[in-house]
Design goal:
The chain is mainly beta and 212 residues long. The chain folds into two domains: 25-110, Cupredoxins -  blue copper proteins (Immunoglobulin-like); 115-210, Immunoglobulin-like (Sandwich). It contains two helices and 16 strands. The strands form four sheets. The chain has a five-stranded mixed sheet, with no helix packed on it. A four-stranded mixed sheet has the order 2-1-4-7, with no helix packed on it. The protein is elongated, with a radius of gyration of 22 Å. The model is unreliable at 18-23 and 114-118 (pLDDT under 50). The structure holds copper (II) ion. The site of copper (II) ion (CU) has 6 residues, from loops.
């Protein structure tokens, strides 16, 4: 039983963490008559993948930062996918050369240099007491100011409670969970986990035990 719970938790954690590892390919759907999403904010080193959905179009750069490569590629039933890896920071405008006024898109590429170690930042999370019965404290450290979501999930990966979704200053913080879900009901005793996600920084999670 204990092994089973541990395996389930590991799978759930892995599923939640997957977003971080997979964040380097961004898909844009090409259809009549739009790029979706038309605006993308990505990091240097990320890839944008245009995927054909319908019609006859192109993805064609309009303006790119100095030093960056341009592109012009058909998107139709025989050319359904096209990747560009972005390594030069700046703003890229692109369009469909067949529908230049209707179909446009913007990609903004941000630098990641200087922040690589922060990407896997652990937030120095500590939870106490273990186990907790009526109030759990989660302490964490922000390496820099950032918009951060702190949530509680159950063993199946179901969201139980969003504790915070706000801007935190650099430094130490403590947030509490009273064992209640979004409806204010006290949840069953058992294994849960917290997740701390800060845009552009990192995403971490760990287990907590509610009740003995
Ligand atoms: Cu088009």
């Amino acid at each position: 039983m204990k092994t089973k719970i541990t395996i389930s938790l590991t799978i759930v954690l892995a599923m939640l963490m997957l977003n971080v590892a997979k964040a380097t390919i961004h898909t844009v759907q090409v259809a009549d008559f739009s790029f979706t999403p038309s605006t993308l904010n990505i990091n240097s080193g990320d890839t944008v993948r245009w995927v054909w959905v319908s019609g006859t179009h192109t993805t064609t750069s309009t303006s790119v930062p100095s030093g960056a490569a341009t592109w012009d590629h058909p998107m139709n039933s025989t050319s359904t996918q096209f990747d560009v890896k972005f390594t030069v920071v700046g703003t890229y405008n692109y369009h469909c050369s067949i529908h230049p006024t209707m179909m446009t898109g913007v990609i903004t590429v941000a630098s990641t240099t200087g922040l690589p170690e922060v990407k896997n930042y652990s937030f120095n999370v500590k939870t106490y007491p273990i186990p907790f019965t009526d109030n759990l404290s989660i302490s964490f450290t922000m390496p820099e100011r950032g918009t951060t979501t702190i949530s509680i999930y159950d063993i199946t990966g179901k969201l139980i409670k969003i504790l915070a979704d706000m801007e935190y200053e650099k430094g130490n913080h403590i947030i509490n969970w009273d064992g209640k879900n979004e409806n204010g009901e006290t949840v069953n005793h058992g294994l849960y986990f917290y997740m701390i996600e800060s845009k552009g920084l990192s995403k971490v999670s760990g287990k907590i035990i509610f009740g003995s």
